[in-house]
Amino acid sequence: MTTKQQLEEIQKEISKLEEKKKKLLTSATPEIEVAEFLHEKLCHANHTDQCSWCYETDWDDKKSLKYAYKAIASKLLEEVRMYMSYGYVNRDVTDGCINLIDIITQSPYSVK
Hints:
The chain is an all-alpha fold. It is built from four helices and no strands. Helix 2 (30-42) crosses helix 3. The radius of gyration is 20 Å and the shape is elongated.
């Protein structure tokens, strides 16, 4: 293998790793984690042909379902951060989050 071919292979590998890094960085946000949780618990659609969740890749496309869930998650986290800023940090925030999770998971709208 020539030096030029080696450099091309390395460049391809770098591109793949950069793409992987980008995906990891975008999926690691609290908003996306909460959005994924909400979708998992609340979506009743058939994920083969009725829900676009599995087919969407762009969390910032305002027409996408992922964007809508991310917006809801952002509002929820904003509320939690507000309580934390008032000093209701440990017990109150934890209880509030647990109550919110209980409401979501035990809701009649939740997927069982």
